[in-house]
Amino acid sequence: MSDEDVELEARLEEQEVFEPSDAFVEQANVSDAGIYEEFEEEWPECWEGAADLLDWEESYDQVLDDSNPPFYEWFTDGTLNASTNCIDRHLDERGDEAAIEWVGEPVDEDNVTLTYSDLHEKVNEAAAALRDLGVGEDDVVTMYMPMIPELPIAMLACARIGAPHSVVFAGFSADALATRMNSADSEYLVTCDGYYRRGDPLDHLDKANEGLEGVEHDTDTVVVDRLGRNGDDFGHDLADDQHDWGELMADHEGAEVEPVDRDAEDMLFLMYTSGTTGKPKGVKHTTGGYLSWTAWTSQAVLDIKPEDTYFCSADIGWITGHSYIVYGPLALGTTTMMYEGTPDHPDRDRLWEIVEDYGATQLYTAPTAIRAFMKWGEEYPDQHDLSSLRLLGTVGEPINPRAWKWYYKHIGNEECPVVDTWWQTETGGMMVTTLPGVKDMKPGSAGPPLPGLDVQIVDTNGDEVEPGRAGYLTVNKPWPGMLRTLYKNDERFIEEYWAEYSDTDSSDPDDWVYFPEDGAKIDEDGYITVLGRVDDVLNVSGHRLGTMEIESAIVGVEGVAEAAVVGGDHPVKGEAVYAYVIVEDGQEESDEFRAEIVEAVEDAIGPIARPEQVIFTPELPKTRSGKIMRRLLEDIANGEELGNTSTLRNPEIVEDIRQVVQGD
Ligand code: WTA
């Protein structure tokens, strides 16, 4: 490092507040600081502006109907179609411009540019094909696909015919697919033969077929041929209820499908996510509120303009990809990028090469990726011209100030604002973050709540805590992008998100408080630092995993008596899975058995849930009432000093486990 660099590091190290550059502010979509006060005064009508970003078939009567909390309704009696909003209405002005730039794994040169006209054509054909297969309005269509262009095409085709989609992350296991299809009574699946990972073809249909075996009702499956065009083939034969995507599209060439008029409150999609219990939750999002929310936040926070080439490196199988690769950016008529591969193949400069080649204007990624980039070193981004970038974003987990500053300096050249966006699958879109053209940034803190949102940090009684003190994050007023319920389970919806801080007998919306299960603190300026989940949900590489789901996979292994799963700190992944396992009498505590446990977790959930360590122990630390003291297990995994163990039934076991994990 040169002397100048050392000095720069020292300066950055100390700096706690960063102003957006004048150049950014001058061109920002939102640059008037008055927006916060204005939205507060005009709430809930302030959200008319978000709805105005869309084209409505029938305009709505009421912005918010809060007569039956927490079942809020937004933009009531308005009707619209999401695919019209993401495609058709842009055709006149942007028909020949790229809607989706798809960058494939570098096995070949078959990157794809889909203009808005191309997208229109393909979505219509797919919509016609799905309808001919029998898909009707409100039928849930499951998608189990990696990052290939047919995924957003299928999603938008469903939106066109009013069929909600339920996308299952391709890295999830066959079991996870079956659970979700059963839970949603989904009779249709769109999947693919396989895809590439670091240059090698991977069989995906095999996994999909295995999942289908666990589905309790009849299904029709559409299979995209991703590998065949490169000559790779796993030799699958399609069954009678399986149809080739390419043939269906050819059969419906040139078809046009009239978009179905959907009520604002009609379901646009379901997304399953992890919660406290072993059963994933089917989060329901609606057409009007969700689309308004993602469009508005894409414009206000990501500063997206139609002429941009916007790059979000998330997977569409998670909510970030739904909201900020597909719906938000396309609603605004911009060019959205999709990357099939990983950031380290063929080399660790892959993302920077893509940014340079396509002239990407925004990059939205996760802290776990940034920590990996940091570890690899700045020589990788330094090989590329990243000057097209105007804004950087992060999402999914807390970002430590060091990683934030590295991103700001080495990717953004100290010229791009960084938006650290806190939100969840359930919130539909961003909730707490700086407006980049208005607010200063404080690394490590997501920022204030967006205008129009009432977020408080409270103690267990629901009273606001002093600045600087840790508490629980709560949202005190509804917002258009919020989940409407858990699929066919209103009771669990109330139990999971509202019961903690609401008077659930009241019909006064002021008595209802949304609890996202995150811990947080706030500073004197109202900036919020999110500390992480306070329930039994882990955040591994920005992916949300339920400890109960992992535990139930482990106790399903023959020879396991009991298991407890906790998260331990990890330098890149943020958190890693630690599994403490008690074996049954006669079962050997061998490496082979460890491997069997790991495999069971991969089968039940997927490789992302793979335990970092499986620790055999004769007992788990338990309170006198028999509750497992997870906190102690976490401390052990983190190599920390152990807290008070006097309330335990079996305090001596803690030291034994500690020695196994930490050594002496
Ligand atoms: C965490 C991802 C700190 C949080 C969009 C939340 C964050 C969970 C941030 C939701 C952030 C997300 N800072 N923590 N900027 N963004 N989280 O549903 O714990 O996959 O509850 O949605 O990720 O994860 P989900």
UniProtKB/TrEMBL annotation:
InterPro entries found in the cross-reference section: Ac_CoA_lig, ACAS_N, AMP-bd_C, AMP-bd_C_sf, AMP-binding_CS, AMP-dep_synth/lig_dom, ANL_N_sf
GO biological process: acetyl-CoA biosynthetic process from acetate; carbon fixation by 3-hydroxypropionate cycle
Domain AMP-binding enzyme C-terminal: 549-627
PROSITE patterns found in the cross-reference section: AMP_BINDING
GO molecular function (one): acetate-CoA ligase activity
Residues in Acetyl-coenzyme A synthetase N-terminal domain copies: 35-86
Ranges for domain AMP-dependent synthetase/ligase: 89-479
Keyword annotations of the record: ATP-binding, Ligase, Nucleotide-binding
Keyword Transcription regulation set for record: no
The keyword Ligase is assigned to this record: yes
Its EC number(s): 6.2.1.1
Family in the record: Belongs to the ATP-dependent AMP-binding enzyme family.
Annotated protein name in UniProt: Acetate--CoA ligase
Lineage: Archaea, Methanobacteriati, Methanobacteriota, Stenosarchaea group, Halobacteria
Gene that this polypeptide is encoded by: acs
